[in-house]
């Protein structure tokens, strides 16, 4: 019987997983380093070349989420295997002006974006005469606006259609006035070039907005692609600061990243990678930061199970209660949930083992209303 479940009746094969599957779309203008970053993250070997539309069909890569906690638990339990949480990245075709009207690969671009849960936008913040820029010169804010405006134009079309429908329905049902007011609020923002993610919505509005599937409500993370020479002063680089100023208006974050260096790092073994990072004065690779931040961007976190068979991180949405978290392991555990035996990762590591943690009263018995915390180490008890 696996360590992370305890059953009161017959044995259960814990083989049916129901994990959270979330996609992040990597977007950017042609030749900004988008596909190179995707390759570095996934080591999937997506085709890269110095010309527009090299990426036509989206490449997909599933990657582990770096989690140092699993390394420490693996040392403690010496399990047969260690399993990280995973996240899915989609490399989407480069976009040009007019995409919302079908220019270039616009229709494909927009349809692929619709299928993702969040956006990672790569922005070129370096000069290099050998790498062609689709607009002739480097201007990160212009590039961001090129993409965001196309998403805004597509959303305006969506909002107008919803608005027409709501106004027709208003004659029969006055409840549509609330939707009309919200749509007009969003439309005004979009027509002023402001993405819907920058608008403050109350709880009722959030429910309606979620049902609209707007492109500009998707969470976004900006990657400022810099040169090796810019690494030392990356956070205060002039181009990076421009991107940060823009992102702040959307409550979005920016990660400066030298995609060229990350490509080199991704091809090294752990020891050589560590040496190169030290030589660059970095604690961890930029891509590890991107993966971790992307996980957070999607509102995800991990609870952990630990024992000799396996040490594992399980992906759940923030705010998930214990029975639903148990359901990520197997539906029967959720159905027959009795209680969760929980210890925080920090407490377990500090005490050195589970026995010592129990003696200190750090292992808690939690019920159906317990909201899971990131890093909880859990043993679920259930009966079916």
Tags for this model:
four-stranded mixed beta sheet; 384 residues; six-stranded mixed beta sheet; alpha/beta; 13 strands; flat; 14 helices; disordered N terminus
How would you describe the overall organization of this protein?
With 384 residues, this protein is of the alpha/beta class. Helices cover 39% and strands 19% of the residues. The chain is built from 14 helices and 13 strands. It has helices at residues 34-42, 68-77, 106-114, 140-170, 176-191, 203-210, 238-248, 259-266, 270-280, 286-297, 322-327, 331-335, 345-351, 354-359, and strands spanning 5-7, 23-27, 59-64, 81-83, 86-91, 118-124, 220-225, 253-257, 300-306, 310-317, 337-344, 364-366, 376-382. It has a 6-stranded mixed β-sheet, with helices on both faces. Strands 1-13-11-12 form a 4-stranded mixed β-sheet. Strand 7 (220-225), helix 7 (238-248) and strand 8 form a beta-alpha-beta unit. The two termini are 15 Å apart. Residues 1-18 and 44-57 have low confidence and may be disordered.
